[in-house]
Write a structure and sequence with these properties.
Blueprint lengths: L3 E9 L5 H11 L3 E12 L4 E6 L2 H12 L4 E6 L5 H10 L7 E3 L17 H8 L5 E2 L3 H8 L7 H13 L4 E4 L8 E8 L2 E9 L9 H14 L4 H17 L1 H4 L18
Parallel strand pairs: 1-2, 1-4, 4-5, 5-6
Antiparallel strand pairs: 2-3, 7-8, 8-9
Helix pairs in contact: 1-7, 2-3, 3-4, 5-6, 7-8
Length: 267
């Protein structure tokens, strides 16, 4: 049986982030992807121009339909938009026993908000304790903690520990918003640093959907029953390849997507 992962997230009409990026990444990594759409966005590489939240009963029905039939081995959660949607998703996956990757999506690459301000505390209180691994970038981690963004390795580790103290089993502190020629990601648990991953910082504007791609790739690895460290390492390596080949795609006029299928068809 093919490993199955479920993504619960918003739809990106431009195809570079959200549900679309998740399913592309899962497929590229040999995992069957199922999906639950929480919001529909009118979005391209330049802006998010409209957001429509899916009715709560429809979100719950989608989750029930998938989990009652498919042997889902891992769940990735992305854009949730409102406190009500967060509660709905949390209630709907309460009986799920597998790993959960929580990507606290707050801001699109264009700078547009994807999570209501009043929903941040709900996300922190209701879903963060459900996370096998939380995958915030530096601004998202700071927002969840109510502090300034980490500026060095020590602060990244400290904030990762603080997020674990709020209930997450592990936290992948992503350094894409940091400074320096090397980009550092650090996987932290309450017991210490599990793994550290680094790569040269690539000079490209085509990074739309990197967070979605990384978190769904980790979920794909967990669906294959890899260890968390191995799943993160494999996802990190896959994303670096997708970023390296992003410019060759030449999609859109703004922040273009990464090349999810760089291992299958080179641009």
């Amino acid at each position: 049986m093919a490993p199955i992962a479920l993504t619960i997230a918003g739809s990106d009409s431009g195809g570079g982030a959200g549900i679309q990026a998740d399913l592309k990444a899962m497929s590229a990594l040999g995992v069957y992807g199922a999906s639950v759409i929480t919001a529909v966005t009118a979005q391209n590489t330049r802006a998010v121009t409209s957001v429509h939240g899916i009715p709560l009963d429809v979100i719950a029905a989608q989750i029930e339909a998938v989990l009652s039939d498919l042997n889902v081995r891992a769940i990735k959660i992305g854009m949730l938009a409102t406190p009500e949607i967060i509660h709905c998703v949390a209630n709907s996956i309460a009986a799920f026993q597998g790993p959960v990757v929580l990507d606290p999506v707050m801001i699109a690459k264009s700078g547009d908000a994807l999570l209501a301000e009043e929903a941040v505390q709900t996300l922190r209180d209701v879903l963060l304790p459900r996370a096998t691994v939380l995958t915030p970038n530096l601004p998202e981690a700071a927002c969840l903690l109510g502090v300034g963004p980490a500026v060095d390795r020590e602060q990244m580790i400290a904030q990762g520990h603080d997020l674990c103290a709020l209930g997450a089993n592990a936290v992948l502190m992503k350094g894409g918003h940091g400074e320096g020629e090397i980009c550092h990601d650090i996987l932290v648990s309450a017991d210490g640093v599990i793994g550290a991953y680094q790569a040269p910082r690539q000079q490209t504007r085509n990074t739309h959907g990197t967070g979605c791609t990384l978190s769904s790739s980790i979920a794909a690895g967990l669906a294959k029953e890899l260890s968390l460290d191995r799943a993160v390492a494999d996802a990190h390596r896959y994303l670096q390849g997708a970023i390296t080949k992003a410019d060759a795609l030449n999609i859109g006029q703004g922040h273009g997507p990464v090349h999810h299928f760089h291992q299958v068809w080179p641009a």
